[in-house]
Design brief:
Largest sheet: none
Helix content: 40-55%
Shape: globular
Number of domains: 1
Structural class: mainly alpha
Distance between the termini: 23 Å
Order of helices and strands: HH
Strand content: under 5%
Length: 48
């Protein structure tokens, strides 16, 4: 599921804030592996 969300983020359909908090860190790791870590940087309002 993390790979699917990462793909949607890379294509511009979603942002990291659209990802459920439960798997958000996994998606961040996938984005980093895809050399798209800059897309994982924004801090969402629902994070502490």
């Amino acid at each position: 599921m993390a790979v699917i969300y990462a793909t949607l983020i890379v294509k511009g359909y979603k942002t990291i804030c659209d990802v459920p908090k439960l798997i958000r860190n996994d998606v961040r790791q996938v984005l980093i592996q895809l050399d798209a870590g800059h897309l994982a940087e924004p801090t969402c309002t629902d994070e502490v």
